[in-house]
Write a structure and sequence with these properties.
Layout (H helix, E strand, L loop, with lengths): L14 H8 L3 H9 L6 H13 L6 H8 L4 E6 L5 H16 L3 E6 L4 H10 L6 E5 L5 H10 L2 E4 L7 E6 H14 L4 E5 L6 H17 L2 E5 L9 H11 L3 E4 L2 H13 L9 E6 L12 E4 L2 H16 L10 E5 L1 E3 L14
Parallel strand pairs: 1-2, 1-3, 3-4, 4-5, 5-11, 6-7, 6-8, 8-9, 9-10
Antiparallel strand pairs: 10-12
Helix pairs in contact: 1-2, 1-3, 5-12, 8-9, 10-11
């Protein structure tokens, strides 16, 4: 066994250093540290003493080379600055930490090309992936699911494990609320055309409008950011509707700011409903009526589903889909339609 003091002090110790210091093969040192039950007690203790003396810390790449597992999960979000994803990230982080995994966070910047490219570029660095509000096509998403373990949040695609936040049902609740207030001409302020939930919400609104016998129209698309709210507010005002449902809270909050600048009273002149109930939606002026979604829970459930798929013993029985309900939270941004505007 080589003296431990002979190891170089000007660089981080490697697994090979630990093996040399303990007088065993590198593969044996790896097994002793990553799967102690596969070596005898004497060897394991010798390797552990060497690792401690050298201040050796295994990294995910080294573990991947020897075991094929990184114990890292990639979490891809469309816009890391969007508060909607804060709770997703918190939920995945907490669940992964409790399970002994590390989270690799990737911001895809609302780009399907970047999302696809990052999944391939980083493939050797993670065991599985969670895609929050993926911008990929159904065909591409299904192909990726056949190539790697993944779970999609806010997406329903055949062959892809998913956690679905049921905002379409919430949209129906929102329309029922507006109709009860006397609104008969309502706009949907559309989000990105590449957003799967955006299309689902619009279809749900069309179905509900037919049941209630009211008119709905679609305006946009708009970027799902607060800065896009000014343009959205101007378009909605020009449309002559008395109420609108926005793709998300950020867009709705941006609209509130623009309407206040223009001297338009909410909800007296226009009622607004948001979606997601992000942090701050109850602080804006007026507080926003919105669809409350179990966002953090979606992150936790996605991790549980993915880890079950990675577990060879339970992969066959792993759950394929989970649906989480939403509900309408009524605040001051919605009110009765004014007779002079209700044509």
């Amino acid at each position: 066994m080589e003296p431990l003091g002979d190891a170089r002090q000007d660089r981080q110790a490697t697994l090979a250093d630990v093996a040399a210091a303990s007088g065993v093969a590198t593969s044996t040192a790896s097994r002793a540290l990553s799967n102690p039950t596969r070596v005898n007690v004497v060897t394991r203790e010798k390797v552990e003493r060497a690792a401690a003396a050298l201040n050796y810390h295994a990294n995910s790449h080294a573990r991947a080379l020897t075991s094929g597992k990184t114990r890292t999960i990639a979490v891809l979000v469309s816009d890391v600055t969007n508060p909607f994803y804060f709770d997703i990230i918190r939920g995945t982080q907490q669940q992964l930490k409790a399970s002994g995994y590390t989270q690799l966070l990737v911001d895809t910047e609302e780009s399907d090309e970047l999302e696809d490219g990052m999944l391939h570029k980083l493939r050797g660095s993670f065991d599985g992936a969670i895609l929050a509000a993926s911008r990929l096509t159904d065909r591409r998403l299904a192909t990726l699911a056949s190539e790697m373990p993944l779970v999609a949040i806010n997406r329903q695609t055949r062959g892809v494990a998913s956690v679905f936040i049921d905002t379409p049902s919430g949209i129906e609740q929102a329309l029922g609320h507006l109709v009860s207030l006397g609104h008969r001409d309502i706009a949907y302020v559309s989000g990105p055309v590449t957003s799967w939930p955006n299309e689902g919400r619009w279809r749900a609104l069309l179905r509900a409008a037919e049941q209630y016998g009211v008119a709905v129209r679609r305006v946009g698309p708009f970027s799902p950011k607060k800065d896009a709210g000014a343009a959205a507010a101007d378009v909605v005002l020009n449309s002559g509707v008395t109420a609108c449902i926005a793709f998300n809270d950020l867009l709705a909050i941006g609209m509130l700011m623009r309407l206040r600048e223009r001297g338009v009273s909410v909800p007296d002149d226009l009622s607004i409903v948001g979606c997601d109930d992000i942090f701050g939606s109850d602080f804006c002026n007026p507080p926003l009526t919105t669809l409350t979604a179990p966002i953090e829970q979606a992150g936790r459930v996605a991790v549980s589903m993915l880890l079950a798929r990675l577990d060879a013993q339970t992969a066959g029985a792993a759950r394929q889909t989970a649906t989480l309900p939403t509900h309408l939270t009524i605040r001051a941004s919605t009110g009765p339609a004014q007779p002079e505007r209700d044509q």
